[in-house]
Amino acid sequence: MKGPRTRAVPAAPNPGEARRPRFRRQLPEQRRAALIAATIECLKRYGHDGLSIRTISAQAGVSVGLINHHFPNKDELVAAAFSHFNRELVDGLKAAAARAASPAARLRAFLEASFSPPNLDADVLAVWVVFWGLYRHSRPIQRVQSETYTDYVRLVRGLLADLLDKGAESGRRRGKGGGVNLRLAAIGLTALLDGLWLEWCLEPGKFRPREAVALCEGWVEALCRRAAGWNSA
């Protein structure tokens, strides 16, 4: 399988050539946000090699000491970048779904946003590959992954619940939609979305984004038919 291409990491600038720090008058939260943005940019440009604190400090135009002042170690900085990166993507999906009027339209808007920029981007894949590679050995990354995955599955579950229940309050109270276990259904649809997204990022010519949306809608339609069969039984 093809992996994301990375560029050579530039040599750290000489002290006399270092850019003037950009954060002199910024508040601590602004400085943290700027360091997180620099980290994400380094991961997009250089992949795993972009994890170097010196590379990040050069990208941000600050000293290594300033990074250490705001983050206790590199893992915490990368975990903060992971959390921010994922939150931006998920917020975009939520916003797309919120603009639609009906449960079916909200799910379709969510699927279309899932297979549109900025999600379909080789740079995005490059960042995720780094995060995945760190997962086994980084407790901060494990913590953020657990939190972000739970939030994402909750979003998918809510969309499915609205579509399947259609106002059936008893189904929502049971945590199921018409006999369908929504927890497992949300995990299943999430796995399908992740698999299709990864396949497209590795081989963009294999299928079109609208075909990925159609595959997901077909999966959901089968789920709805199953729920309807249980309801009529």
Would you summarize the structure shown here?
This protein is mainly α and 233 residues long. The chain folds into two domains: 19-71, Arc Repressor Mutant, subunit A, CATH 1.10.10; 79-232, Tetracycline Repressor, domain 2.
**What is the CATH domain class of the largest domain?**
Mainly Alpha
CATH architecture annotation of the largest domain? Orthogonal Bundle
Detail the poorly predicted runs. Answer: 1-10, 167-176
Radius of gyration using CA atoms only? 21 Å
Instruction: Write down the secondary-structure element order.
Output: HHHHHHHHEEHH
Largest pleated sheet:
2 strands, antiparallel
The chain-level mean pLDDT equals 84
Distance between the termini: 46 Å
Report the total helices: 10
Count of the separate structural domains = 2
The quaternary organization reads as single chain
Structural class: mainly alpha
Reading side by side through the largest sheet, how are the strands ordered?
1-2
CATH superfamily grouping of the largest domain:
Tetracycline Repressor, domain 2
Percentage of residues in DSSP E strands:
under 5%
Coarse morphology: elongated
* Helix percentage range: 55-70%
Topology:
Blueprint: H1 28-46, H2 53-60, H3 64-70, H4 74-98, H5 103-114, H6 122-134, H7 139-165, H8 169-173, E1 176-177, E2 180-181, H9 182-202, H10 209-232
Antiparallel strand pairs: 1-2
Helix pairs in contact: 1-2, 1-4, 1-6, 4-5, 4-7, 5-7, 7-9, 9-10
Q: Any key phrases for this structure?
A:
233 residues; mainly alpha; Arc Repressor Mutant, subunit A; Tetracycline Repressor, domain 2; 2 domains; two-stranded antiparallel sheet; 10 helices; 69% helix; elongated; disordered N terminus
